[in-house]
Amino acid sequence: MSKKPAILKSSQAIRSIVFGQQTINVAWASETNAWRRKLCAPELQEEFVQVLGKHKEPLPPGTTGVAMKESEHVSDGDPRPHYTAYCLDGAGKTIQVIHLIKDGDEVAEKEEK
Questions:
Q1: Element (H or E) spanning 24, and its range?
Q2: Which of 31, 53, 93, 99 could staple 82 via S-S, CB 3.0–4.6 A?
């Protein structure tokens, strides 16, 4: 039986980043259907913004926001150090969940939404 992905319920804004003509609102997930996060260290927020900035091209079409779901980690499904993030549309709905690789130039898409 596969584990159901955590569904984003709310997030806290970090800041907006401009990529050419596209503005991406960057945030950290503060609540899902499975957990609640009360704090996110400013240093972690800034590192996430920097990692996202290196990986702006592969974001799914329609993405206007990206919220950090998980800080840097490795997992059974992806042994590379990565952040897990929600790509959000203009209404704040999840388009896709992705892995942002800290020290690489690639984004590994996850199959879950």
A1: strand 22-32
A2: 99
Name the nearest CA neighbour of 45 among 20, 18, 67, 74: 67
Contact 108, 99 (CB under 8 A): yes
Residue 60 has phi, psi (to 5 degrees) of -60, 150
The string of pLDDT tens digits covering residues 55-113 is 755 688 999 999 999 999 999 988 999 999 999 999 999 999 999 987 755 555 554 44
Residue type, 3: K
**DSSP annotation of 74:** -
Task: Read off the tokens for 32.
Answer: 């899902």
pLDDT tens digits for range 35-57: 999 999 999 999 999 999 887 55
Q: Which amino acid appears at position 96 of this protein?
A: Q
Here the tokens at position 21 are: 């003509």
Instruction: Please give the helix or strand (H or E) that residue 73 lies within, else none.
Output: strand 65-73
As given in the structure block, the two tokens for residue 98 are 């992705």
